[in-house]
Request: fold
Amino acid sequence: MNMNWRLASRLSVVILALLVVVTIALLNWRHATGAPVATNTRNSTSGLNGTDLGGVPAHDFHLTDQFGKPVALSQFAGKPVVLTFMYTHCPDVCPLMAEKLHSAMLDLGKDAGRVAVIAVSVDPKGDTVAAALNFSRVHRMVQYWHFLVGTQAELAPVWSAYAIDAQTQVVTVSMHTAVLFLIDQHGRERVLLDQDFTSAQLTSNLKTLLSE
Reply:
């Protein structure tokens, strides 16, 4: 029993050290690339939850959604846009974010139709149109969002434009930046939310953008 306790204690220390190293590495990467570090606190000026992105124009892109149809970010001019990055076989963060997005759409009620939600794949090998449609059905987002897929050559420029770290060099995606960009009706990046956002925070942000 004593040996087991000592082993468990040492393993805990090692795991904690690894988590610290990973966290520091991610923060250093964001600092080096100029990517903003997301927070979910309310901005006193705009009234929006999240990190202020300064209203810079959002980078446009053209990809294919879960129905096999071409989709461009620019086609949603006049609507607030929720932009996030996911992959269909993600075991933890992505399903949770998808469920919170679904809750926010339900909270918006009829106003959900006035909002665009876009999820861009970070796994060009594993995310097919069929996989995107299945993931959308499982998380009840088929009619609420466009889950966009593409080749490495098509997706990589989008990741780069939004400072998304998608580690796809191996067979499976080992890590990716899990955030939400909120873009207003005029195509301007307004705030960034991290993966710990709540559906209530997102709903509040969208209602604020819809009222502008």
User: Anything to note?
Assistant: The CA atoms of residues 40 and 50 lie 4 Å apart.
